[in-house]
Specification:
The protein has 483 residues and is an alpha/beta fold. Helix content is 38%, strand content 12%. The chain has helices at 8-17, 20-29, 43-52, 58-67, 71-76, 82-91, 98-108, 112-121, 123-126, 137-146, 156-164, 168-181, 189-193, 202-205, 268-277, 290-301, 337-342, 414-418, 425-436, 442-457; strands spanning 256-262, 281-286, 311-320, 324-326, 333-336, 357-365, 377-378, 404-412, 466-472. Strands 1, 2, 3, 4, 5, 6, 7, 8 and 9 form a 9-stranded mixed β-sheet that branches. Strand 1, helix 15 and strand 2 (281-286) form a beta-alpha-beta unit. Helix 4 packs across helix 6 (82-91), helix 15 packs parallel to helix 19 and helix 19 packs across helix 20 (442-457). The longest helix is centred in the last third of the chain and has 16 residues, at 442-457. The protein is globular and about 70 Å long. The protein starts with 7 loop residues before the first helix and ends in an 11-residue tail after the last strand.
Length: 483
């Protein structure tokens, strides 16, 4: 049987797009395919070698991208999508073993401090001479495989160490894998290796995933089977009072809606690719009037699908002044900046109550003397409450204004005259950081963005400098890393 090969050009394009962490994961996933080569070749050469040996079909390469959640590359380079790959994995043999997938899932769910604790516990089994400082979880697993302490059918040590660092949720993942490997009928091996694909129970659809307490939230897994949710806090097997996680739960698929409104025309496409790669459903519009911006915000706030999602993102790129943004009909109408988030607060949009709402605004400021006197007419400041089949905002303990992240960058509109096709430095930097620092908290990422902007400000003329303002009412950390 002839295996369809992948072109070298496609392999090159994909390897260029992957970051170092993603390359490490794919190398780990391929260890069983070429155990004698995987440690000697870089990813590009390894993929080419597997391709030449007939071990890497386009479907196999698509699976590898699926495993590292690069759905944007599936669409743009492989000309397929997540749903097609998932269907193929159910119907056809997998390239990657369930064991390898399980290890990568455990790696994604552990932070650096937990990997350090896990590695320290191994001293009881491999002696104190071996150091795992600064090694990733997958590096540690590879070393344990070499001395036969971990194998697909040998995971007791891993379970014990995870229990000792209080990651009972991860221990349960291993137990589920073992059950599927033994041929348990309630879930097959392929399903065990697939991320949850969003099969929801109607009772769950009525819940606020982040708004409700953990005890109040019905949780459903594949085929409706109840399962525990991964939390960032330590858990023990003994019954104990539930403690709220300090990280927002971002596990829905898609994570949420990312609304992009670009009235300048230079940033929507790259931002769309970035947020698709993070697992968002992106809706975007270009060159809207002020009235159309207001109408779009209202329509998106009314979407009932928010009830199934864990987060909302809004990105606006417009001209404006110190207090308003303009559509393409500037200077006829101005939409007050403070009105933008009011469309999505808990009282106006109850399906987003308790869920993080992120706003990134690039405002190209028009000087006061360039505006016509009295030309700005504020739109009606009233924002109607949205009713979803009778579901309206109720008396919750969460404040209506909570869970908002507001990042506003202002720069003089004259930069557009000098470089009319150049992207926003602020949004370009944000997009790059979101891609490069997956797993980093949003506040830390924004600090890095501030540093980049201030560094640039020190090197450009005053009229080209950006000012950035951050306000937030977040109650937890946000980590935009799609899993």
């Amino acid at each position: 049987m002839t295996v369809c090969k992948t072109s070298a050009q496609v392999i090159y394009q994909i390897e260029e797009e992957l970051d170092e962490d993603e390359k490490e994961v794919i190398l780990f996933l391929c260890r069983d395919l070429a155990p004698d080569l995987v440690t000697k070749l870089d990813l590009r050469d390894l993929l080419c070698t597997l391709n030449e040996k007939g071990k890497l079909s386009p479907a196999g390469l698509a699976e590898l991208l699926y495993r590292v959640r690069r759905f944007d590359l599936l669409k743009r380079i492989m000309k397929t999508d997540r749903a097609s790959v998932e269907a193929s994995l159910v119907e056809c043999p997998q390239l990657v073993s369930d064991y390898r997938v399980l290890m990568t899932q455990l790696s994604e769910d552990m932070d650096k401090s937990e990997v350090t604790s896990f590695s320290f516990l191994l001293r009881d089994y491999i002696g104190g001479g071996k150091t795992y400082k600064n090694k990733s979880f997958l590096d540690v697993v590879i070393d344990l495989e070499k001395i036969n302490l971990i194998a697909p059918d040998k995971l007791d040590l891993l379970e014990k160490c995870l229990k000792n660092i209080h990651r009972i949720d991860l221990k349960k993942k291993i137990q589920k894998y073992k059950q599927s490997a033994l041929g348990a009928t309630y879930v097959n091996g392929i399903q065990a290796s697939l991320p949850s694909v969003g099969i929801m129970n109607s009772a769950y659809e009525l819940g606020f995933k982040n708004g409700m307490n953990k005890e109040e939230r019905p949780i459903f897994g594949l085929n409706g089977i109840s399962k525990s949710v991964k939390t960032s806090i330590q858990e023990s097997e003994k019954s104990s009072p539930q403690v709220a996680s300090d990280i927002y739960r971002l596990q829905s698929q898609p994570l949420g809606i990312c609304l992009i409104i670009d009235c300048i025309g230079n940033d929507a496409d790259p931002l769309k690719d970035t947020f698709i790669s993070l697992g968002f459903e992106v809706q975007y519009s270009k060159h809207l009037s002020t009235e159309e911006i207001q109408q779009t915000l209202y329509q998106v706030a009314c979407l009932t699908k928010h009830q199934n999602y864990d987060i909302f993102v809004c990105i606006l790129i417009c001209r404006g002044d110190s207090e308003n943004i303009f559509g393409i009909n500037q200077p006829c109408l101005g939409l007050p900046l403070h009105q933008i988030r009011k469309f999505f607060t808990g009282d106006a949009c109850p399906l987003l109550l308790g869920k993080p709402k992120l706003f990134f605004i690039q405002n190209y400021v028009v000087p006061e003397d360039h505006k016509e006197p009295n030309s700005l007419l504020e739109v009606d400041g009233r924002v109607a409450k949205v009713s979803y089949n009778g579901w309206e905002s109720r008396n919750f303990t969460i404040h209506q204004e909570a869970d908002v992240f507001w990042s506003l960058c202002k720069v003089n509109v004259s930069v557009l005259a000098r470089s009319p096709t150049s992207p926003s430095f602020y949004l370009h930097g944000l997009s790059n950081l979101l891609r490069e620092k997956r797993g980093c908290s949003l506040l830390t990422l924004h600090t890095d963005l501030n540093n980049k902007i201030y560094d640039r400000n020190s090197r450009v003329a005053p009229e080209e400098q950006s000012s950035i303002m951050l306000e937030h009412t977040l109650r937890k950390k946000i980590v935009l890393s799609y899993r």
